[in-house]
Structure formats: structure tokens, C-alpha cells
Amino acid sequence: MTKTFHVLLLISIFQVLNVQANLLEILQIQNKLKKSYNDIEKLQATYKTKLKEAITRENENASQDLKSQINDELIKCREENSAFEVLNKIYAEQIEDLQRKTTIDSDAILKEKQLLIDEGLETISSYTTIINEQAKQIELLKEDLQVKDQIIFHLETKTKDITDKFKNLEDLSTTSITETDDTSCLAFGDSNDVHLIKIDDGEAFEVPCESRFAGNGWTVIQRRLDGSVKFNRNWLEYKEGFGNLSGEFFIGLEKLHRMTVARPHELYIHLINFHNESSYAHYDNIVIDGESELYTLRGLGTFEGTAGDSMRDNEQQKFSTYDRDNDLSEASCAVNCLGGWWYNKCGSSNLNGQYTQQDDYYDNTDFGIYWDEWLGPGYTMKAVQMLIRPKINTEK
Ligand SMILES: [Ca+2]
């Protein structure tokens, strides 16, 4: 029994000792754990700091990224912007180009329109000329008709006169008396021959009649054709007339006076230049005074025609020749202009001037056959005819 006890005791003591050892070990472990915990805390703190740092760095990185992103965006924007600028430039150039084109186009269109308008105006003008010409022809035809009526009337009167004369002759049984009733070329109708006319109690005289320019019944009072007759003549020659009735001549101031005083007369001047172009001047009431008035061109009446009114400043002027200076110039126009005319100072016409054989323009000279209003001063005419005719309209 005691042995067992001892054994048991021993075992118990051993067991207590063993527990004590275990407790020690636990304590040691507990210390170790405590230490570990601290370490962990430290580590945690370190990690926290590191984490913070890491987060900050992360943020910086993010902002870096953002910056670079923004930079990228900016670069993109700039690139787009410059692309837009390029496009803008192109568009601006295109707009400018279009504007220029539009201007050019509208200019061209305007020019074309203007051209059309000009052409239209020209056409209208040519039609107007044709219409005027036709109106003139109609007027001339009317005048012709009037002339013919007059001739018929004249012939009827003549027939009656002849009948009467025959009766008288039978009664008187005397020889015939030569007598003319023909007071103007109107009596000879459509004639271009030389006829004898008796305009008043004075002597009958021969005149060339002319029906080719402006109807029937005109008497030629002056004619220039070829320079075959000299026109620079003295007072007496201009008074009496000179030249050849079938060629160049001047009828004479005295006859001109007698004719225009016996009945109202119109004057028709026909001009031809060296290009064979013609024009005319028509005055509806020409009157020439007698010698006591120095054959003053008392009146011309109203002008009408294509040649211009170059004789207007001769109206109311006396006739002058190289030996009779009746003009208003200090010099002698007749001497300077080489002809006889109703010179003023000296005027714009010189139809009795010196004949030239060519189409010459004599600048600053006075002596040619000129009619300033038609071709300008100094141009000489190839041919001229001055015609007069009793006014038909006043013969009522
Ligand atoms: Ca003078």
C-alpha cells in the first residue's frame, strides 16, 4: 500500500511539475504574442502611411493622367481647330471666287444687255430713218400730185386761153403773137430741160428745170459740177449771170430778185461730196432784194434738211464780189473766199467758192465750196445745185 501511494505521489508531483512547466511555456507564448501584436500594430501603421503615400501617388498619377489627357484633348482641339482654319480658308477662297465670278458674270450679262439695247436702238433709229424717208417720199408725192393738179389746172386755163386766142385770131385774122404763159418750171412738170419762162412784164429768159431731187417744177439757179466755169467774178457778172445753162452756171442776181419777188419761192440746195454721198438743205421762203438793196438775202424761211443750216448767217446780208465788198468783215470775204456770196463775217457756206478736183480738207482756208454744218469747216463739195420753186402751198 505505501508503495503504491508513493508511486502515486511521485506521479502527482511529476504531474504538478509538468503543469508548472506548461504554465511557464504559456506565459512565454503570451509574451511572444503580445510582442507580435505590437509588431502588427507597427506594421499596420507603416502600411497605413505607405497606403496613404500610395494613394497620394496614385492621385498624382491620376492628375498626371488627367493632365496628359487634357493635353491630348487640347492637341486634338488645336489640330481640329487648324483643320477648321484650313477649311475656313478654302471656303473663304471659294466664296471670293464665286463673288468674283458673279461680278464677272453680271458684268458680262450687263454688257450683253447693253449691246442688245444698243442694237435695238440702232434698229429703231434705222427704222425711224426709213419711216422719215418714206414720209418724205409721201410728202414729195403729195407735192407732185399738187404740182400735177396745178399743171392740169394750168393746161385747162391754157386750153381756154388758146381757144380764146383762136377765136380772137379768127376775129382779127392777124398773125400769131409769140407769148409765153410759163411763169416757172412748174409749168413743165417732170422736166429736166431748159425752158423759157416769163415771170413778169420783163423779158422772158431761159432756165434749166429740175425734177430729180425733190419733185417737179424746180428751177436751177446755180450749179457746180466739175470746175469748168470760173466763179470768182465781178459784180456785173453776178448781176447778169454767167456760165452754161446745161452745165455750170449762176443764173444772175437780177433774175433771182425778179423771180422771188413775183411769187413766194422755196429754196432747195443739193450737195454731193467726193464719196458721192448727198445731203440737202431746204428753206421754205427765199427772198432776194433788188440791186438798190445790193441784192440782200432778205429771207430764207424755215430750214429743213440733212445738211444743216449753214446759210442762216447769210440771211439779211448784202451780196459781195471781189470788186464790191458789202460784207461785215474788216477784210473782203469775196477776195478771201474766191467767190460772190451773201457774206457776213464771212459765214459757214461758200457755194460759189473755188472748185477743187478732189476730196480735200482745207483746214483754215476760206476759198473752197463748203457747207460747214454738213462735214465741218473746210471740206469742199464735189457737186452743188441750188434750186428754187414757187411755193405751192401758198398758191390757193
Ligand atoms: Ca468787208
TrEMBL record:
<dbReference type="InterPro" id="IPR050373">
    <property type="entry name" value="Fibrinogen_C-term_domain"/>
</dbReference>
<protein>
    <submittedName>
        <fullName>Fibrinogen-like protein 1</fullName>
    </submittedName>
</protein>
<dbReference type="InterPro" id="IPR002181">
    <property type="entry name" value="Fibrinogen_a/b/g_C_dom"/>
</dbReference>
<keyword id="KW-1015">Disulfide bond</keyword>
<dbReference type="Pfam" id="PF00147">
    <property type="entry name" value="Fibrinogen_C"/>
</dbReference>
<keyword id="KW-0732">Signal</keyword>
<feature type="signal peptide">
    <location>
        <begin position="1"/>
        <end position="21"/>
    </location>
</feature>
<dbReference type="InterPro" id="IPR014716">
    <property type="entry name" value="Fibrinogen_a/b/g_C_1"/>
</dbReference>
<feature type="coiled-coil region">
    <location>
        <begin position="26"/>
        <end position="72"/>
    </location>
</feature>
<feature type="domain" description="Fibrinogen C-terminal">
    <location>
        <begin position="176"/>
        <end position="392"/>
    </location>
</feature>
<dbReference type="InterPro" id="IPR020837">
    <property type="entry name" value="Fibrinogen_CS"/>
</dbReference>
<keyword id="KW-0175">Coiled coil</keyword>
<dbReference type="InterPro" id="IPR036056">
    <property type="entry name" value="Fibrinogen-like_C"/>
</dbReference>
<dbReference type="GO" id="GO:0005615">
    <property type="term" value="C:extracellular space"/>
</dbReference>
